[in-house]
# Entry
Amino acid sequence: MAVIGPAWVVMMADVDAPSVITAGESGAVFGYHLVFVLLVLIMPLFFIQEAAGRLGTATGKGLAEIIKDNYSQHSPIPAGAVSSPV
# Structure
């Protein structure tokens, strides 16, 4: 757990039935044309999830709450959209 980190466990817990169905549907429609996009997005997603997990472990707050505390009130909305999986 110390090597992988808690954010990885949270990311893997997000793989539920609707996610699998959506992935299957996307694969049926687009085939392998989106594999490059997935390869490009895996690393930023991993780093954002890992940073959010570490911040949550250290502070007890979520990413949007930390952004709201340190920036303006309207910052968590775009930051939450960027950091949440699609």
